[in-house]
Specification:
heterodimer; A: 117 residues; mainly beta; 7-stranded mixed β-sheet; 4-stranded antiparallel β-sheet; 0% helix; 50% strand; B: 115 residues; 6-stranded mixed β-sheet
Chain lengths: 117, 115
């Protein structure tokens, strides 16, 4: 149980274009989803917390106009990288929990490797 | 201040030996959870083990055990009988009690298991 599906797994796009990444909880409802970014051999950095039906909460230093997050339903959150630049190339990974308590692990999607040329 | 500190960028161990990956944490919240995740080179995050702040006993899951020393704020992961497939990056993470809080990760430790 507690499966999170993330698509696409890899995407290559040209500078200036936008890319949408989907994150779905397949067998549970997730009122809260989280988006992380990871550079090679580095830690996962929290970008934003996505709440169903409300605006996402972004971490300090994350541009909300560049990284648009929509949490339209209890099972789907999307991250759109707008006007992508090469420095946006990274590994993006979403996560969700079926319980919002400190003893609940987050379940992760398999990540999206974004390359901007 | 860092909430999760992993001081070992890389660790090397031989097959069948045990290895300890260090993790210390910092929080003023009396209620929190500590987690370890494994990330192979393919990138997926695999949940290994959990320890709650009020748990009296150290958590164990198969070959994984967590050496929880609350007073020292440490939550070291012990992997017994290492296998080649254990080679990966390992992250210690914490989730505080406030509802909807995310996991905060340490910098990770790369474990290499050799035959």
């Amino acid at each position: 149980g507690a499966v999170v599906s993330q698509h696409p797994s890899r995407v290559i796009c040209k500078s200036g274009t936008s890319v949408k990444i989907e994150c779905r909880s397949l067998d549970f409802q997730a009122t809260t989803m989280f988006w992380y970014r990871q550079f090679p051999k580095k830690s996962l950095m929290l970008m934003a917390t996505s709440n169903e039906g409300s605006k996402a909460t972004y971490e300090q230093g994350v541009e909300k106009d560049k990284f648009l997050i929509n949490h339209a339903s209890l099972t789907l959150s999307t991250l759109t990288v707008t006007s992508a630049h090469p420095e946006d190339s990274s590994f993006y990974i979403c996560s969700a929990s079926n319980r919002d308590t400190s003893n609940s692990p987050l379940h992760f999607g398999n990540g999206t490797r974004l390359t901007v040329t | 201040a860092q909430k999760i500190t992993q001081t070992q960028p890389g660790m090397f161990v031989q097959e069948k030996e045990a290895v300890t990956l260090d993790c210390t944490y910092d929080t003023s919240d009396p209620s929190y959870g500590l987690f370890w995740y494994k990330q192979p080179s393919s990138g997926e995050m695999i949940f290994l083990i959990y320890q709650g702040s009020y748990d009296q006993q150290n958590a164990t899951e198969g070959r994984y055990s967590l050496n929880f020393q609350k007073a020292r704020k440490s939550a070291n992961l012990v992997i017994s009988a290492s296998q080649l497939g254990d080679s990966a990056m390992y992250f210690c993470a914490m989730r505080e009690a406030q509802a909807g809080t995310a996991l905060i990760f340490g910098k990770g430790t790369t474990l290499s298991v050799s035959s």
